């Protein structure tokens, strides 16, 4: 069932309707208002955030999330627009979170409606099926034309950040920073919306950013498998993968061993070899992975 229909079925219509509204309900310590034309849903009250994030909707107006919960401003939740796939938007995605060696790479890309067809013809939509080699030839053509920004967090920096932030918090910081930079690059153009491939609950994402001076939160939406929702996310994903591959290649040259992708047992073997050569893994790997301990064990056995 449509999210809006579910909301209408859940909350009793027990208050006087304001103009343009089809539901106004007071229950669970929140007042929920649904507006007919825009499909916007407003949540006000003590448990506004908890209530709003129950639904498969994206938080449109989250400025207040940077302040204390005593702030009584309402949350406005939005469904993703029906014509999303054809809109001019920024997509944002990250790679490297499942890879022991190499960076965490976040990329944001701005794809205008007029470039959607071109990117589709280039094969971007099937990004998951592209080989590393195809990515290396395709992405340079894409970034000639498509505005983007990459935040490439090298292992040394990642491990440093990881002392204070967990992996998801680091991702959130990366996305926010990439968005700041990209919005600046495309000025005065503004995207119709910003779509982040969802890696954590929206409310958690905003919590991770609470301490940041500048938070990009206007028109920011999260969606799982975002690369299917809009080609901008697939484009961002490809660009991130390209930078990750290049970085992994450079790091491999430094140690003169091919650093494999992923986090399997072959990764442990290579990490153990690096340890044997007294190479500091801090500069090459995400130390919090279980691979570190496994590699140390292997190293002691040799
Ligand atoms: Mn993703």
Overview of the molecule:
The strands form two sheets. Strands 1-2-3-5-4 form a five-stranded antiparallel sheet. Strands 8-7-6-9-10 form a five-stranded mixed sheet, with helices on both faces. The chain contains eleven helices and ten strands. It is an alpha+beta fold and 302 residues long. Manganese (II) ion is lined by residues 93-94, 197, 199.
Question: Percent of residues in beta strands?
Answer: 15-25%
What low-confidence regions span 5 or more consecutive residues with pLDDT below 50? 62-71
By DSSP, the count of extended strands is: 10
Question: Bound small molecules, which ones?
Answer: manganese (II) ion
Q: How helix-rich are the residues, as a percent range?
A: 40-55%
Largest sheet entry: 5 strands, antiparallel
Radius of gyration: 22 Å
What is the succession of H and E elements?
Answer: HEEEHEEEEHHEHHEHEHHHH
**Basic shape:** globular
Strand order of the largest sheet: 1-2-3-5-4
Helix/strand/pairing class, anyone? alpha+beta
Mean residue pLDDT: 90
What's the oligomerization state? single chain
Distance between the termini: 59 Å
Contiguous helical run count: 11
Topology of this structure?
Elements: H1 3-10, E1 21-27, E2 30-35, E3 41-45, H2 48-52, E4 58-61, E5 75-78, E6 89-95, E7 104-111, H3 113-121, H4 132-145, E8 148-153, H5 155-161, H6 167-186, E9 193-197, H7 202-208, E10 220-223, H8 226-229, H9 231-255, H10 265-276, H11 291-301
Parallel strand pairs: 6-9, 9-10
Antiparallel strand pairs: 1-2, 2-3, 3-5, 4-5, 6-7, 7-8
Helix pairs in contact: 4-9, 10-11
The structure holds manganese (II) ion.
Manganese (II) ion is lined by residues 93-94, 197, 199.
